[in-house]
Structures are given as structure tokens and as C-alpha cells.
């Protein structure tokens, strides 16, 4: 009988690894990489044979208009999978040979099966056209292993990781309520992760526990509807009496990475002048590259800064999600294609990770009992006007919405988030059908017009999360708190339009030279 899935969460615990254990883990990770590459090669071979077979070609030629035809087509594809052994458990049976080889003393059967499942899933995604062809792992490129249960193989026993004859104690802070909650929960299985910190490998045990994650008392869920307009780098949010545009990137990390990238490129060109054309391009064909010690050091520094930037980005996303959930329990996000963002705004998407932020928002909202709705693009939130209902297609360079009916001027992203906040759903036969509630939008617009017109500047995540507490009782109180903390950046319903810039000028005149912002003292937090 198939088991019922239960909710899960991850508790990460660093491991105290000595030199002998580090050598053993390094050998086992390399053995796991070899098993993964072998399984991936076998899966790709079976996929190619299946695609060349007549059974598969006949299945592709079947019609798929009606549901009966779709079922018959799916059954034909399943028969092709069975005929060529392109199934997950077939790959498990093929990988069982490694337990009787020289790899057997290093890896257990459960770990080998999870590696086979990992290779099969990557190949299946490629077969369905969802991802590109999976690549083989080079040395030190496989950095995670996991078991199937906490009964054998990779296990967490008491306060340590147990794997065959290896026992690695964990570094546990008993005073941390998050760690204590994870240790009290039942462990489903364990994942072993390897990361490089300043070029030195560090190991962590990720306990996949049963239940819901620990929620801190400060992260309570608010009440209200929040509209969100996602972008490649900037996300815009509007709520009951407030609006803000948040920049998800970190400028300091980008500058440091860019400087190290230029340093690595200069040293690569200096070490290999024969591999470049006179115009600076790399010569076509294969080349032998010489890597100096300084280039290796710069590459290690760049990898460390990129690792820190990724960890900082994850932390910023989590703080922003917690802030939003404290302000509302229903978040309505306009649906966007983040793959299209990657094609058109690749650098900004790489620094901000908007798709990862939306996934984190959905996961945390589901865990906290809140709701996240993805609105269809058919609403045309960036083109429609709620006052007259007219739809005007705007060019991307036009960042202000102003209609002849009197709505506006207001920043385009702010207005789209406001319309997303006013969208409602009607239950239909094929699910909820979303539409823009123009009457509700007109009522809300009357009380928020000044607020929306004033919110045009960008805020960093740290500035927004520290702007005001979640238990502000009124917009007037929010404005007093914002003014007490410095320049007001989060617009509320009590703020007049165009007030932000004069306040900034007065603050600069009060603090230092007129027209220039005073340089902050190192170590002091920004307002």
C-alpha cells in the first residue's frame, strides 16, 4: 500500500570533522561521483535506444486530441519504457552491481539507489523537454549525498552522523530553538552536504524531519491582501495603506565579484597569449591553458565571494518573506515567465533570483497557513486602467501610468501591484477565474492615491524590513515611526505626493553639506 506523504522540513547541523574523517568522506564522495556518472551514462544510452525504436515512433504518431486518445498514447509510451528498461527501478537493478565491486566497501546500497534515482530524474527531465541534456560530474563537482531512511546507510543517531564504520559528531547549539525543534522531530532521512569555505571543505548534515518548521514568535501572520508586481531585479508590493519598491540585489557583492572576474581574466590572458586572437577573442578549437598560482588564488577568492553572496541572497529573501507575511495573509503575485527574464535580463536575474524568491514565498506561506495566488497574464495589469477600463499597450521604457480619465500619474510597477491587490477570483468548472474588480479598485484608490503616487524610490531589503514594526496600528503612526528613523522611504496613505525628495534635501542640510549626503561612519547601520 502506498504511504501517505507527510509535511517535511530541513534542519541543518554542521559536523565536527577531523583529518581522518575528512579523508574518508572525500574518498566516498569521489566514489559516489563515479557511480552517478555510470548511472547517468546508462540512462542516456537507454533513452537513445528507446527513441530509435519503432514502438516509440508509433507512440509519437498517435493522436492526442481526446482524453481517450491521450490515455492510449500514454500507455504506448509506458510500453516503450518497459521494453527498453527506461524506468527508475530498472536503473536501480542495474546499479546493484556496484555493491559487489570495489566500490561496495565505500558506499551502501541505499546511497547507490539514491544516486541512480538522481541520474534517472535528470534524464527524464531531458526526455520530457523540460531541461537540457544532463552533464557528467567532474572531480569535486558532486557535493551532496542522501539516504532513503534513517534506519540504514546514512543515519542520524543521537547527536552524530553514522555511515558504515564512520561516526561524525555534530556541532549542536542546544539553546537554538530551531535546532532543538528539529532534533525533537522524527528524522525521515539524512542528506550529507559538502561546501567549500575559503577553499577548505566543510561538511553539514541536513536532517529531513517530519512535521512543520519552527516559527519564531516574531514571525506571526498578519491579516490583509498584498499585491505584488515581480520584476527581474525589483519587486513592488502594495498593501492596506502602504506601498514600496524593493531591490533584491546587493551592490557591494556585485562590485567585488566584477573586480575579481577582471583580475582572473587579466591573468589568464597573460599566462596564455597564444590562445587569443589579435582582437582579444579566444581562438577556435581546443587549447592547453596554463594557470598560475595568482590566478588560482583569485579564482578561490571569487568562489568564496560568490558563495557568500548566495548565502546573503537567501537570507535577504527569507527576511523579506517574513516581513510580508507579518503584513498580510493573502499575497497575489502576477504570473511571469522567469525563463524569459533569464533570456532578456540575465545579469539582474542572476543577482536577484526572483524565481527563487517566489518559490520561497509560496513555501513559507503554505507552512504558515497563508495563501499565495499567481494571477494570469490575461488581466494585463500593466496595461489596463481601472478608472475607464481602457487597455493601452505600453513600451517598456514608459515607467509612469497616466490616463485621460484622471488616474495617475503613478509609477507603473506600483500601479500594477495595486491592481493585483484588487483582483478577485470566481470559482468555475476549470478552477478559479481571475478578474479585476474595478469597483473595489476605485474605492481603494480614493484612499491610497496619494500613497501610491509618493512611492517611487527603491529600497534595499534591509531598509524595508527595518522600516517599521509589523504591529503598526495606523498609517499615521507608521509615518511618525518612519520620520523618526530618518528619511521616509516607505510610502503610506498619509503621505502627500512628491514629499520624499524635499524630506531628503532637508535631512542632508541638517546633517552636513547642503546638497550632499554625509558619509556614514564605518560600522554604523544605515537609516
Q: How many DSSP H or I helices?
A: 16
Oligomer: single chain
How many individual β-strands? 18
What class do helices, strands and sheet pairing give? alpha+beta
Poorly predicted runs: 469-488, 494-527
What does this entry look like structurally?
The protein is an alpha+beta fold. It has two domains: 8-210, no CATH class; 225-271 and 304-511, no CATH class. Helix content is 44%, strand content 17%. It is built from 16 helices and 18 strands. The protein has helices spanning 19-52, 54-61, 67-84, 88-95, 109-127, 177-184, 251-271, 293-327, 338-344, 346-352, 354-368, 412-421, 438-454, 461-465, 475-484, 500-511, and strands at residues 8-14, 144-146, 155-157, 160-163, 166-169, 187-197, 200-210, 225-229, 234-239, 242-247, 330-334, 371-375, 400-401, 410-411, 423-428, 431-436, 458-460, 491-492. Strands 8, 9, 10, 11, 12, 17 and 18 form a seven-stranded mixed sheet that branches. A four-stranded antiparallel sheet has the order 1-7-6-2. It has a three-stranded antiparallel sheet with strand order 3-4-5, with no helix packed on it. A hairpin with a 2-residue loop joins β6 (187-197) and β7. The radius of gyration is 28 Å and the shape is globular. The N and C termini lie far apart (58 Å). The model is unreliable at 469-488 and 494-527 (pLDDT under 50).
Amino acid at each position: 500500500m502506498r504511504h501517505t506523504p507527510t509535511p517535511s522540513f530541513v534542519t541543518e547541523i554542521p559536523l565536527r570533522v577531523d583529518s581522518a574523517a575528512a579523508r574518508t568522506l572525500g574518498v566516498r564522495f569521489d566514489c559516489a561521483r563515479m557511480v552517478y556518472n555510470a548511472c547517468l551514462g546508462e540512462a542516456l544510452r537507454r533513452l537513445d535506444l528507446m527513441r530509435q525504436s519503432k514502438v516509440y515512433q508509433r507512440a509519437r504518431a498517435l493522436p492526442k486530441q481526446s482524453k481517450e486518445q491521450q490515455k492510449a498514447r500514454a500507455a504506448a509510451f509506458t510500453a516503450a519504457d518497459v521494453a527498453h528498461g527506461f524506468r527508475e527501478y530498472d536503473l536501480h537493478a542495474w546499479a546493484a552491481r556496484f555493491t559487489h565491486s570495489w566500490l561496495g566497501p565505500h558506499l551502501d546500497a541505499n546511497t547507490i539507489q539514491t544516486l541512480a534515482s538522481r541520474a534517472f530524474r535528470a534524464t527524464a527531465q531531458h526526455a520530457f523537454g523540460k531541461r537540457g541534456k544532463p552533464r557528467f560530474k567532474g572531480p569535486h563537482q558532486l557535493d551532496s549525498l542522501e539516504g532513503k531512511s534513517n534506519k540504514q546507510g546514512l543515519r542520524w543517531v543521537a547527536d552524530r552522523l553514522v555511515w558504515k564504520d564512520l561516526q561524525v559528531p555534530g556541532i549542536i547549539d542546544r539553546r537554538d530553538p530551531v535546532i532543538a525543534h528539529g532534533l525533537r522531530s522524527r528524522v525521515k532521512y539524512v542528506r550529507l552536504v559538502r561546501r567549500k569555505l575559503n577553499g577548505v571543505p566543510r561538511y553539514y548534515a541536513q536532517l529531513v524531519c517530519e512535521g512543520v518548521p519552527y516559527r519564531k514568535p516574531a514571525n506571526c501572520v498578519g491579516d490583509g491582501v498584498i499585491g505584488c508586481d515581480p520584476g527581474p531585479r525589483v519587486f513592488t508590493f502594495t498593501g492596506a495603506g502602504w506601498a514600496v519598491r524593493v531591490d533584491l540585489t546587493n551592490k557591494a557583492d556585485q562590485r567585488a565579484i566584477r573586480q575579481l572576474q577582471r583580475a582572473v581574466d587579466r591573468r589568464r590572458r597573460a599566462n596564455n597569449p597564444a590562445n587569443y586572437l589579435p582582437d582579444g577573442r579566444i581562438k577556435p578549437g581546443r587549447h592547453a591553458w596554463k594557470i598560475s598560482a595568482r590566478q588560482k588564488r583569485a579564482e578561490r577568492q571569487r568562489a568564496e565571494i560568490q558563495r557568500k553572496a548566495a548565502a546573503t541572497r537567501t537570507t535577504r529573501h527569507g527576511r523579506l518573506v517574513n516581513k510580508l507575511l507579518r503584513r498580510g495573509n493573502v499575497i497575489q503575485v502576477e504570473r511571469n515567465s522567469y525563463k524569459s527574464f533569464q533570456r532578456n535580463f540575465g545579469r539582474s536575474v542572476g543577482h536577484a533570483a526572483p524565481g527563487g524568491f517566489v518559490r520561497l514565498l509560496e513555501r513559507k506561506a503554505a507552512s504558515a497557513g497563508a495563501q499565495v495566488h499567481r494571477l494570469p497574464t490575461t488581466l494585463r495589469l500593466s496595461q489596463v486602467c481601472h478608472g475607464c477600463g481602457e487597455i493601452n499597450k505600453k513600451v517598456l521604457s514608459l515607467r509612469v501610468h497616466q490616463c485621460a480619465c484622471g488616474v495617475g500619474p503613478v509609477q507603473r510597477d506600483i500601479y500594477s501591484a495595486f491592481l493585483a491587490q484588487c483582483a478577485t477570483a470566481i470559482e468555475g468548472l476549470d478552477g478559479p477565474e481571475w478578474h479585476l474588480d474595478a469597483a473595489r479598485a476605485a474605492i481603494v484608490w480614493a484612499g491610497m492615491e496619494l500613497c501610491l503616487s509618493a512611492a517611487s524610490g527603491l529600497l534595499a531589503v534591509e531598509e524595508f524590513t527595518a522600516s517599521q514594526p509589523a504591529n503598526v496600528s495606523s498609517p499615521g503612526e507608521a509615518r511618525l515611526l518612519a520620520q523618526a528613523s530618518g528619511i521616509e522611504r516607505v510610502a503610506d496613505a498619509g503621505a502627500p505626493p512628491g514629499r520624499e525628495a524635499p524630506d531628503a534635501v532637508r535631512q542632508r542640510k541638517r546633517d552636513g553639506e547642503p546638497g550632499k549626503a554625509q558619509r556614514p561612519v564605518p560600522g554604523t547601520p544605515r537609516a
